[in-house]
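Appendix B, record 7
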Amino acid sequence: MITEKELIERVQGKFNKSSNRYNSPNGAFLELIRDFAAQERIENIADAIKIYTEKNPKIDSLIAVSLPGILSNCYFATLKDFSFEKFLEWSSLNSDWRYWIKENRKDSAGLSLSVQKIRQEVANC
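Structure tokens (predicted):
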């Protein structure tokens, strides 16, 4: 679990390091979410989103529409022993997976279960 203090420090550190890439800390926050996805830290993603959106509620709608793509590109596409091609095929037939992700974006257990459900369904197709 990521703490509020750690989250703020990491976002601010990314923003300070690459402020020429971002016009606000929100870009640094989304980069941190991508990092967590690439590191397979799904529960940290939900915890971070919950903490960050409590302080910055205007970004919540951007996160909701961005998170399925972030997970697709930075998590599912990089998993070992997982067929990203099968995932793409499956996701075209099961577009509600994006809804599962959006609805559980602030719930670490719910997001983890949604991701596991997707992995299982792709493996079984």
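Remarks on this record: Residues 4-123 form one domain. Residues 49 and 106 are 6 Å apart (CA to CA).
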